[in-house]
């Protein structure tokens, strides 16, 4: 925990320092004013930690207020950081261009102003994008389904992040989509909850009423661990989900579901144990929160469903994320008959904004194809 906090303060504090260096030219030349701004920025760095402490001590109103302020600011300063870096890079070229001193001073102030204005506009756009869950449809043809079942429709959700900043309203948006597509099966690959569970009884009751013919299944993600795996498991069950952490189940329609509990370590041996070939196992879907792929498991499953990445959530973070996860969104062929689909996430973590990575619910349509075709 101490190492995590040290890394957090170093990274998040550095973002604020770069932001301060860019905008300080807009401030009056008075040391007290600059000191007040620096103290305010330091408070913003501390606010997410304060939110966690307030939430863990059941001060839900103040935790919610702190979360809204702190995470909204987090989105703003993240965008402002990238604008600041671009403006500093541009500023480094000025000596080569031969700009006069007076022109440079004007451009510095313009850059500082744009560092405030552009993120504010992007925040508004990003908030609007985060509010509409897009329905993505994926068709998959297979010979492994029960021939008596020509098609199975699966509603796939991930990373809803119900908690301090999202609740019954987000669930109602999902339910409207469930009612629209009428799936045979609902699957969730973790992070349904994020922090506080108390106060989500109405959301759980609404989800419990959604009862597809083949049931609802889920695995836990990293935020269920932060919340408390057992408490999160009980919440998932109260929503009507059967939790498949390191378990598998075979459905009558010719589907086999295998679920992996989230862990920071890959632990490929667990995947191989879970995916042992079984007689008449049918079309095998592996539920795994993070899009980690164990090479030795290829061919043992037909489709891996994952989330966790949010496709970066706020551009350009997705470009950085690709260094960790080669597949951050969409359907990909892994070879040996295995594929992976990575959801952008049905909700939003932290800052309630999304840029170039809108939330999604995925409708997977499995079509039975004759063996000879």
Give the tags.
alpha/beta; 6-stranded mixed beta sheet; Purple Acid Phosphatase, chain A, domain 2; 45% helix; 14 strands; 2 domains; 373 residues
Task: Give a brief description.
The protein is an alpha/beta fold.
What is this structure's SSE topology?
Elements: H1 2-23, H2 31-56, H3 60-92, H4 94-97, H5 101-131, E1 134-142, E2 151-157, E3 162-163, H6 168-181, E4 185-188, E5 193-194, H7 201-208, E6 216-218, H8 222-227, H9 229-238, E7 242-243, E8 247-251, E9 255-260, H10 268-274, E10 283-288, E11 303-306, H11 317-321, E12 330-335, E13 338-342, E14 360-368
Parallel strand pairs: 1-14, 2-4, 3-5, 4-6, 6-7, 9-10, 10-11, 11-13
Antiparallel strand pairs: 2-14, 8-9, 12-13
Helix pairs in contact: 1-2, 1-3, 2-3, 3-5, 6-7
Description:
The relative contact order is 0.13. The model has no long low-confidence stretch (mean pLDDT 91). The protein has 373 residues and is of the alpha/beta class. Helix 2 (31-56) crosses helix 3 (60-92) and helix 6 (168-181) runs parallel beside helix 7. Strands 1-14-2-4-6-7 form a six-stranded mixed β-sheet, with helices on one face. It is elongated and about 80 Å long. Strand 9, helix 10 (268-274) and strand 10 (283-288) form a beta-alpha-beta unit. It has two domains: 2-129, no CATH class; 135-368, Metallo-dependent phosphatases (Purple Acid Phosphatase, chain A, domain 2, 4-Layer Sandwich). It has helices at 2-23, 31-56, 60-92, 94-97, 101-131, 168-181, 201-208, 222-227, 229-238, 268-274, 317-321; strands spanning 134-142, 151-157, 162-163, 185-188, 193-194, 216-218, 242-243, 247-251, 255-260, 283-288, 303-306, 330-335, 338-342, 360-368.
